[in-house]
Design brief:
Elements (H helix, E strand, L loop, with lengths): L1 H15 L2 H11 L3 E7 L5 H5 L9 H7 L1 E3 L2 E2 L7 H10 L3 H4 L5 E4 L4 E4 L8 E2 L18 H8 L6 E5 L2 H8 L5 E6 L5 E5 L8 H8 L2 H4 L3 E2 L32 E2 H4 L14 H16 L9 E7 L1 H9 L4 H26 L3 E6 L8 H6 L5 E2 L2 H16 L5 E5 L2 E4 L1 H6 L4 H12 L5 E6 H6 L5 H9 L8 E5 L3 E2 L13 H4 L3 E5 L5 E3 L3 E2 L3 H9 L19
Parallel strand pairs: 1-12, 1-13, 2-21, 3-22, 7-8, 7-12, 14-19
Antiparallel strand pairs: 2-20, 4-5, 6-9, 8-9, 10-11, 13-20, 15-16, 16-18, 17-18
The structure holds zinc ion.
The site of zinc ion has 5 residues, from α13.
């Protein structure tokens, strides 16, 4: 009886304790700053392949002191930059957030649209049209949006990347700012009227400084090239290189090559573009006072140059290796400043990628691994002939893009045809083509629930309003691309398996080989911050990552 009375008293004391002290406890457990890092085109094995060459303060610090999800994948197709960034931060897939590709055919306007394009806003910081961008095509919120809503807009959000879509989509709809880099003959960090009418002083100062110009130097390997045993020969048949230089071999004199390679845009295809991104991120932390009070701010940083380098030189190149060794140094630099400015243990970081990449198919073929290149023109001729023979016209097809066929609904109706029958007829034809491994109708995507496999991934990437009528899957490691350099977009492991590291406040130390998926990231961050999940989130918080 005494025991019961005691319990009741304790319970009363708890109930009577002021609400403010409860919320204070919650606030205290929140990080002052969350930094989301996306490394464009980073395969999981770049963590392990180059591990012995990384320093202690960059990737290794995140891997060993944080939590390493070793079996993390994209769970949809296509694996491109726009959908990748949207999925990481919204915690869902193109089915819900609507960013079905970088560019797609818009069925309503019957024109190609870009994922961050916004004709209703103006450029800020450039006379070009490169600033006419916003997240208007993304239909759901990011965890940064939810943090803004939760904190009554007191927690800031800043998005930064060389690529506009890499800055804009992560930061979300309510961001204070997103900044991206305009190369050409300007070499400036820019934004749009979606965020502001004029660049803040710290951005203007940065643009006026000599920082950008200082990177137009010679790109040589960070360490002796002979020690780069984790990648192929510097001179090989599988790399693109720069215009004006005969071989894709070190060193690269960027000042001399600048004119033939898009002016300041040349920096995008070098590790120096990543260093420039880190410089700008550090300027933002200082200029915006990020992480200086108890209300959580969010900084999203995307390192875009790893993607440009991969596209040009390929997964197995010395250039890719050098780019990661240098990025490791930039990460170390960033973390050191965060320790000092925000305080060690006061911030939370996650690092992932927007997609992986395939080894150059020509290289794989030279090793007898099944791989190859799609002959688009041959396939187009054959398909047009088929449509003309079957329907008396090839006009039924309005557009073919992103491995999807878009049909002309009006023509199909006018000819008295059944849309789902036309879709199935096209599937039956396309599946007979050499390079096509699988084909599905939109009808199947909306009427059947696929629990796993590539069908499930297509379904996660399929947006009923925006996607096409027929979806095809090419053979493994078959790409529609130049015969040099790497690309991505498929549902195969080389494109889906990417790093996922959590580090800092609220994060446990450890690792797992349990499968995690990209849409788990945003709900994990929401759970860590004790805020609402993004509006369309379909992933689950990773309980084993979060400290209770
Ligand atoms: Zn890419």
């Amino acid at each position: 009886m005494k025991k019961l009375l005691f319990s009741i008293i304790i319970l009363f004391c708890f109930l009577l304790s002021p609400i403010s002290s409860i919320s204070q406890t919650t606030d205290k457990s929140n990080p002052k700053l969350v930094i989301g890092i996306v490394v464009d085109q980073m395969r999981y094995d770049y963590l392990t392949r180059f591990y012995n060459k990384y320093g202690e303060g960059g990737f290794k610090r995140l891997m060993n002191e944080g939590f390493n999800c070793k079996n993390n994948h994209f769970n949809y197709v296509p694996t491109y930059t726009g959908p990748g960034h949207a999925s990481v931060y919204t915690g869902t897939t193109p089915k819900y957030h609507g960013i079905i590709s970088n560019n797609w055919y818009d069925k309503v306007s019957k024109a190609s649209v870009y994922c961050a394009q916004d004709d209703a806003v103006e450029s800020i910081g450039t006379t070009s049209r490169a600033g006419k961008m916003s997240p208007n095509k993304m239909q759901t919120t990011t965890f940064a949006d939810e943090n803004r809503l939760f904190t009554q807009k007191k927690g800031k959000t800043i998005g930064i990347a060389i690529k506009d879509r890499g800055a804009i989509l992560p930061a979300g709809h309510t961001a204070n700012a997103a900044y991206w880099f305009h190369g050409k003959d300007e070499g400036q960090w820019i934004t749009s009227t979606y965020y502001m009418e004029d660049l803040p002083k710290w951005v203007k100062d940065f643009n006026k400084s000599k920082t950008v110009k200082s990177y137009l130097k010679t790109w040589n390997t960070l360490y002796d090239i002979k020690t780069y045993v984790e990648s192929g020969d510097d001179l090989n048949d599988f790399e693109g290189g720069f215009k004006g230089k005969e071989t894709a071999t070190f060193p690269y004199d960027l000042k001399a090559l600048k004119e033939d390679n898009g002016g300041y845009d040349i920096l995008k295809t070098t590790p120096f573009g990543n260093s420039l991104t880190a410089d700008f991120a550090l300027a933002a932390i200082e200029g915006e006072d990020l992480g200086q009070d108890e209300i959580t701010d969010v900084l999203t940083v995307s390192f875009s140059c790893t993607d440009y380098v991969g596209h040009n030189f390929g997964v197995n190149s010395k250039e890719v290796e050098d780019t990661y060794l240098r990025l490791d140094k930039d990460l170390e630099r960033l973390l050191k400043v965060l320790d000092k400015k925000v305080g060690s243990g006061e911030y939370t970081v996650f690092l992932t990628a927007d997609h992986g990449a395939v080894d150059v198919p020509a290289y794989l073929k030279s090793l007898n691994v099944p791989a190859g290149y799609i002959d688009n023109s041959d396939m187009k001729t054959k398909f047009t002939e088929f449509m003309t023979k079957t329907y008396g016209t090839s006009d039924l097809v309005e557009n073919v893009s992103n491995n999807q066929v878009f049909l002309n609904r009006e023509k199909i109706k006018a000819l008295g045809l059944d849309l789902s029958v036309v879709q199935q007829t096209i599937v039956n034809e396309l599946i007979t083509y050499n390079d096509i491994d699988k084909a599905y109708t939109a009808q199947a995507m909306i009427s059947t629930s696929f629990p796993d496999g590539i069908e499930h991934m297509i379904q996660n990437g399929f947006n009923q309003k925006r996607s096409g009528d027929v979806i095809v899957v090419y053979n493994p490691a078959y790409i529609s691309y130049s015969h040099t350099g790497s690309t991505h977009g498929s549902g195969f492991n080389y494109d889906t398996h990417v790093p996922l590291l959590f580090y800092g406040k609220g994060v446990k130390q450890g690792s797992t080989v349990t499968r995690t998926v990209i849409p788990d990231i945003a709900p994990t961050m929401s759970a860590l911050l004790n805020i609402s999940f993004p509006s369309g989130a379909t992933g689950s918080p990773l309980e084993f990552v979060i400290k209770k």
